[in-house]
Amino acid sequence: MPLRSRPLALIVVTLLALAGTLARAQTPAQIDTIFSDWQGTAGPGCVVGVSQNGRVLHSLAYGMADLEHGVINTPHTVLEPGSVSKQFTAAAAILLAQDGLLSLEDDIRTYFPELPDYGETVTVRHLLNHTSGLRDWGAVAGIGGWPRTTRVHTHVQMLDISARQLSLNYSPGTFYSYTNTGYNLLAVLVERVSGMSFAEFSRTRVFEPLGLSSTQWRDDFTRVVKDRAIAYRPDRSGGFAMLMPFENVHGNGGLLTTVGDLLAFTHALESDELGISEEMHRQGVLNDGRVISYASGLFVDEYRGIRQVGHSGATAGYRGYLSRYPDHGLAVAVMCNAARANAGGLAHEVVDLYLADHLGEPPSVQAPIPAPLVRLPRDRLQMITGRFRNTRNHSLALLEPTTEGIRGPWGRFSPQTGTRFEGTGSRALEYSDDDTFTLIGANGDSLRFERVLAWEPDDEALQSLVGGYHSAEAEVTYRLTLDATGLKIVDRYGSAAPMTPLYEDTFRTGMGIMRVVRDARDRATGLRLTQSRVWDLHFERVD
Predict the structure, then answer these.
(1) C-beta separation of 141 from 96 below 8 A
(2) CATH, range 459-541
(3) pLDDT tens for residues 150-177?
(4) Helices assigned H by DSSP within 301-385
(5) What is the spatial distance between Cα 221 and Cα 256, in angstroms, rounded to a whole number?
(6) Contact between residue 541 and residue 469 where contact means Cβ atoms under 8 Å apart
(7) Which residues contact 205 (CB under 8 A, 6 or more apart)?
(8) Helix H or strand E encompassing 95
């Protein structure tokens, strides 16, 4: 049997609430089946809450909250939902804008003069929408040798790292790129504008007005929190080891809460109890006019053909997901204290139970690629396939000819013309006469690729790269060394990792894509590192 606590009021399905909106009433046993992997006393687990129109239908708990002391998870267990927290931070900032104390169009350097002047304006709205171009401070800290969860990071360190960044990933508003920096800055901004700690402002303006009595920020990880679950990851022996967020940064994550409070908050946004819902749900607009799905701490999109508003999260060993479906009044919250739990997947399985008669095909059912409208000869397909460089992040894409078209990292594509190929999910490839192609994504984004040749550098070429390379922005020096197995990158602790050649002067490393920078005399003078949340981080050669 699952370990859970079920007050009668929480397990009785209210048919009146379901009438006319949900096609199917569900029982706790049906939800138990979804969480079968998380039942029992041998490991951590999950807590799930389901509500309709603000009324809780089910609140169920599985597995252990504390393996060391034999404490089970209950519906009242306090966990962290990771980046689900961002919508609470967005709400605080928007409340200040509603009070007239700031504008969402303000230049953030008005509040953060310690940040560099990049010659372009980063606004508060850019922070809310993840379109600022600011590098993710946690990713930079990881490059520097201290990934998150390995030391006690604070907002002081976050600001210090952010202030050291000499450039943005891109011009503000050009792209959407998820970065925790924006939401940590928003938390500090609320403090600087309101004159209150972020925790106190949140308590008085958000938590207490909405009755969120079990919610607080983890602004001091050493504070004792009643009913808090410990987070775990699998260990090598087949058991579990603790994986806790021993850090004080918050606003990007760091919310301590229950599934009941999460359901109450998302219902408050739906019913506009704080008077900020229109702004909270306003989706970001890029400089080219493209509307993105990210609003203010919320993804506004679809799930299997129905409207969805939600967010996922992960912090250390905690996992979380909160979503609602406005056309059906349904909301689902899932939090887990197990690193391998897929909170979003579990939440959507619950949604599938309730809204089965309203949903389109499941995500696992892939639509077939469009039928070819033209037949291209094999030699033509071979001419336009091969090795290509992503001009945005410098990654390598391999395109291969198939019997019906082209296959690449994004699936198969069939020819519609001599230069356009259609794939699934509204993806398309467009070839140009200059031997480049553009990948057009389902969300309207486009990526340009240019052809590159395979590169097999000899020992002399690799030896010319051996030496030390320092990044002032990450405050770290790496060394490139050469041995019989090839070029290696060595960190400050002596750990070495391979540098795998992709194309000329470009390598794949465990940190991301590393490119060699050369001077006019063709001497290697530096490196540039690009990963998902940090673009073109500079390393200058020091010996």
Answers:
(1) no
(2) 2.40.128.50
(3) 889 999 999 999 999 999 999 999 999 9
(4) 343-354, 378-383
(5) 11
(6) yes
(7) 92, 95
(8) helix 86-98
- Residue 241, sorted as left (phi over 0), alpha (psi -120 to 50) or beta, turns out to be beta
E strand residue ranges, 29-72 = 46-52, 55-62, 64-66, 71-72
pLDDT above 90: percentage of residues in the chain? 90
The alpha helices in 99-254, defined as continuous H runs, are 124-129, 137-143, 155-164, 180-194, 198-202
For residue 264, give both structure tokens.
């109450």
The predicted pLDDT at position 361 comes to: 84
Q: Rounded CA gap, 312 and 320, in Å?
A: 6
Specify whether the CB–CB gap between 201 and 102 falls below 8 A: no
Phi–psi pair at 447, nearest 5 degrees? -125, 135
Determine the average pLDDT of the residues in 478-499: 96
Domain ranges of the chain: 82-358, 378-451, 459-541
The residue to which tokens 């493209």 are assigned = 290
Q: What is the DSSP letter of 36?
A: G
**Which tokens hold the place of 388?**
């290509």
What order do you get walking across the sheet with 330-336 strand by strand?
55-62, 46-52, 330-336, 318-325, 306-315, 299-303
Dihedral pair phi/psi, residue 131, rounded to 5°: -120, 20
Q: Are 529 and 539 in contact (CB under 8 A)?
A: yes
Task: Give this prediction's pTM.
Answer: 0.93
Please state which CATH number belongs to domain 82-358: 3.40.710.10
d(CA 225, CA 256): 9
Distance CA 251, CA 248 (A): 10
Max CA distance (Å), the chain? 78
Cα(212)–Cα(190) distance, integer angstroms: 20
Burial 143-168 (b: 16+ CB within 10 A, else e): bbbbebbeeebebebbbebbebbeeb
Q: Residues for the chain: how many in total?
A: 543
| Residue 252: both structure tokens together | 């990007």
